[in-house]
Structures
1.
Amino acid sequence: MLFYFHFQRRLENMLRLFHQQHVKFTKFSKFLSFPMRQINTGYESVDKLADKATFGKIDSIIQWYEDKFGLSEVRHAQEDAIKARQKCMDLQKKRREHVKEYLEIQKEMETIVKEIMKTERGTDRYVELAIKENDIIKRKNDIKPYLEMMEEEEKLAFDYYNSKVSESHEKERLRTENFKLYYLCWSIAAVALGLMTNFIYNRHKNKEFRDIVLSSTGNSEDYKRMTTQLINIVQEQQKEIRQFFSDVTGSQKDLGNLQEEVKTAVKSKEIDNTAEVLKVIKEDQESLLRELNEVKKVVAVQAAKAHSDHVVYVGPEVRDLLSETESNIQRTVKIGYALTISSVFCVVGLTVPIVLKLFKGD
């Protein structure tokens, strides 16, 4: 009997331990928020909106999601484990009732044995107690095989419950591993898609750069033709410049004569006319200086052309166009470089923590 009670206590402790583990596992499964087959958020408008958005196939979509990621198998395994636990608890309850009845019979038998020991043999009381003892022994013999059978069934139920809990844990572990694999594949696909998008974007920008350069090269022919026309115009103006130099020389002589005449006029005229004459002379000199500066510019252009045939005069319009093209190219290159660097940093910042989290030791 001591061995039997010791075994019973150990069995109850093991059942209690497995029950606690199953409760923890059930809480963990609820924490994972497994989707239910029938959507029911508690808000009728949300349920109707989800039903309309999926054309009435929300249950099919959820079922496909559960089957794809192994949630259905995990749920079925949990349900089987719960049923096995309930069956084991029912058998344990019945066994306890029979054990209680067996102990009561044992106690009653001990009481009758004590009374028989005190009763004298040959009396009616002794015969009555002997009959009761015989009935109790029959009841004890009847309940003992049933109790042993209940113990065997409880062992089998406990083993079945243990196997179902292990199976549920194993399926949950496999589901987690598969989810990690899917997550890793999705991460790699996202990184590849980002790199491909960046490659296409850079290729498009490089094509724009080539188009800009080719258009600039094609326009350079027009610029060269326009520059040749400008040079021809300058050459035509050289003749006028030479004539202008001769006129300037004559005007300088006339200016000297004019100064002598002015001096004579100053002496002969009144002092009030002196300021007016000086003003006229100053304006004439400023006009002459401006013409000389223009002549110097034209001569510098002609000298540059004489030194090298490859030197092209670039006007303000051409210079502005080239500056604008250069600034557009620099701005596009900077934008592409910044986007490339940002994409690389984002990919590295997302991939490295994910890989470390997936492959670190449990």
2.
Amino acid sequence: MSEVANQPPKPKDASSTKDTQAHPVREWIDTLLKAAVIAKGDQKTGTQPQTEDTSPSATAATETTATSVPTSNSSKDDDAENKPEKTVDGSKETAPPPPSEGLEDGAVDTGRDATEASTTVAKRYRRRRCEVEGCNKFARFNNACSGHVVDIACKERSSDSYCGADKERQSVELKFGDFVDYYQASFTKQTHWLQTVDDLEFYLCQCPIAVFKPDATCAKATLSSIMDEFCLPKCLQDKPMTQVNLWMTVRPSRTTLHYDAYQNVLVVLYGKKTVTLYPPSDSANLYPFPVHSKSANHSQVNIVQPNLSEHPRFSKASAQRFTIAAGDALLIPEGWWHQVDSDAFTIAVNYWWDDVREQLVADSRLVPYYARVLMEELIKQQCEASLLALRSTGILPQEATFMDESSAVSAFLTAPDQRGREQVFLSLDNKTLVQVQRCLAESQDAEWRQFLVNASVDMVAVLTNTWEKGNLEEDFLGVVLGALGDDGEAIQEQLVCKQEKFRQNCAAIVYRSFGQ
């Protein structure tokens, strides 16, 4: 392990843990052990982001509170620890007595009053006990892992975020012990050689402590000794786990907007994170990198300071924001875009497991079929959205709406040009639109024929959509198309071409959503 400049930290035994300047990084292993309380069912469920997806894999992100994780954001004396603490919702919570020595997490102390035990919602662990246990465990772990080389993300101090895009990502390899020294020295306002390296800041991000499913991106855990110290939470034991990662910030940090191809539970052990979420349905508005690139799961938008001249559709994106502190857990569903802002000295772990993506690509022979089906559905949805947008733009003020088809026909005939006539059509509800078409075909066949010849691609899409919806009189199409006379076949061919052009335009919008 590299030495800390000027004043390297000295090893401390259990009796030295009363030092008020000591950071609970020494007790973080103990905190990791207690992170598993998210499986014990005593969470507090927060708000859920709304999603347009209805499949189980697109479950709304849920903010929960793992209340029995010790909140160690500051060092306080014993008297302060026994004061009531505020819960997440701001209410007061009476701190129960510390658990009996040797009592396992989740067990009931039979020496306590049964009523008291049953009404205690969440156990709070006294800080001194955690500090002593954590110090001892950290000492053992640090001896075993301090020499392990880990990949550390880095950025210039002037940069506002750690970029995950392939061409912009920066990282260095350091011994884990060096990074821990850097972390502790920075917290206690000591100096360390990493603080002056090329004006850079460092962040231990996505460091694998368990790899259940090795692949080309991660073959084995870097710090497996951590995972040896605690069990996988019960609520995740039936999941097809892929990886568990450790995250440690020294300075306030921010990741760029991206999504993961896994279900994800993020647990904060110390500090605070703010997670900004966008649903998969917002992908087109988030300007992802091209799907063929190595950064396909990253957005090109700086969501903090967006350039709307370059990314105008971003203004249509709908974000939801969650703040998770020590003891909180957040479910980030597979495919949901997220950006994470972390306070200084934040420590967290996250759990990844396979879901929909793995099922889709499991049989390579079926992947092309799935891709075509999904693309067809995306284009269909885009066509429907575009038609809805067209009809919305044609809505007239209340005083200008048409009482019946006669007034609509009159407005159509007196409109100054083709655009004005189309505006009249777009302002009509479906029932009136059908009635006006029939009326024009029967009594104004020349005007009707001329209107169809000059109809825009969008207007043809609206008309043919009403023709294909059904619920029409049996002779309706015969009337509106029969009025075209000798030119009927040629005009119908033009209508088909314009309808196809509309679908091509919608497909182009879908293709752009995969990145350019």
3.
Amino acid sequence: AWGMKEWYDSKFTEVAALDEESKDIKHKAAQVGDENFLILGSDSRVGAPKGAGIGTEETVKGARSDTIMIAHLPKERDRAVLVSFPRDLEITRPECHRWNYKTGEYSDEVVPETPQVKLNTAYAEGGPRCVIKWVQKMTGMRMTRFVGIDFAGFKEMVDAVGGVQVKVDTPIVDSILGTVVDKPGLVTLTGDQALSFVRARHVEGDPTSDYGRIKRQQQFIAALLTKTMSRDVLLDPDKLTSFVNAFADATFGDNIGVDQLLELAQSLKGLDTDSVVFLTVPTTGYANERGNEVLLEDRAQELFSAIIHNEPIPGVDTGEDASHDTSGDDSSTDQGGTSPEGQ
């Protein structure tokens, strides 16, 4: 078993990202024993074949973070909190070293601090290290694990485990991608469907494009992790090996391996629905004159302070109106959303 674990771990691509000694980390004593995964979905198209539905390197230049999410497990492991950030959130991008997404390496060139830019440019310019630098400064949280997923290999991960089951309330029809899910209820997504499910930004009935997509991404990532912990996968060597191979091909990370991924998956699977909380960082809910989402900084600080100290989360555990001054569709909080799969 140990040899198999070493083989799995050796397949993960290591990329420098973490800075656990950063001066931006607050209340360090309160965070001892916590695990904070920064999960980043990259929309670089390196190696993506034509007709894959995600564009190619020729049609979509560079690499930008399409998904940015913190998965927090407190030391007590009595809840899990997943916080997503709109990719169009307006930030002051910190000074960072230039990142080459093709090689996964940083250069000596310094990209200066730049105000009033979109969050996803942090990854494009400075890679995961720049994203984590901004995240830690804004949240005060210590990121302990980093995992990046490239959409070019996303479909294979899903197909390797025989699809992933999610529950949808209405059909999902996107004006660009077409019909993703044709009827409400429980549906097992194929790799092609899953890719469209997490990338759809122009869905009929979505009041705002980014927040509906964030909810689907949160729901799907939780469902995928739950599926990997199911007996159907863990007790099937061929299926498990296929998933690990596909996952390793599509991911890169820092301080991440089989044990850490299984702990996150097991925590999501083992907690009851009310103890797994999905959030979107508080924003005004509408774009400013630069087309960027605007962070509600005071509310964000309240949120991350509650997470750090494992206290009731404003708007969720306290019964407050979580949708006030956010996107207007109650997108700042959403409990549950994990798949029933893997029971």
4.
Amino acid sequence: MLNTTQATFSNLHIYRFAKSSNNAGMENKEIRKANLEALYEKRQHESGMTKAQFAELIETSPAALSQLLGPTPHRNIGDKMARKIETALDLPFGWMDVLHSNEEPSNVAFRGLNDTKGSYPVISWVSAGQWMEAVEPYHRRAIDRWYDTTVICSEDSFWLDVKGDSMTSPAGLSIPEGAAILVDPEVEPRNGKLVVAKLEGDNEATFKKLVIDAGRRFLKPLNPAYPMIEVNGNCKIIGVVVDAKILNIP
């Protein structure tokens, strides 16, 4: 456990090392100004924050903030002000003294937690092919596997385990073998949708992308190694894929 003196020394050591590593060619006053500009611009872009609101956030006046920012600032950001900004914005000690304005933005954004909208059964591809043709309702209570979804869909929806690599794409959208797809029979199959269909003479259903071009309809695999299948009355669309899960990630 570090005591207060040890913790302060540790923080100073860390940020001084970072300064010497990352800030070559820039004076400390320039680094602090660039970081302050980046902090304000980020909040302005994300929430429309005004300069007056940002000044209040870092516990200073709009006039003082204007003196710190701008192409020809009238004041430098001193040690006391730098630590004050770090405290107000919950930044680590010494953050203002290491250049951050040129960092790559994260490609991951947190969108919040979604509530589960329902749970649906996992059925076989043979059962999927007969789903809408069954004389009696499917006995759902006999099904052992059910998956949740955050998508609103009809009560007749069901999950399928993806088999084979025909929907595994080398680029763009890819649904690999072992994933699970949620199929809604009530969604209208439109051009570009991923669908589950049953071809005439086949016992099992198939999973492809529906392509409609000049009145002609095709079932297109996402994997370019597989051919497209033209359909002209010999195919029945069972449902549209509305959700997918990647299971058992290694």
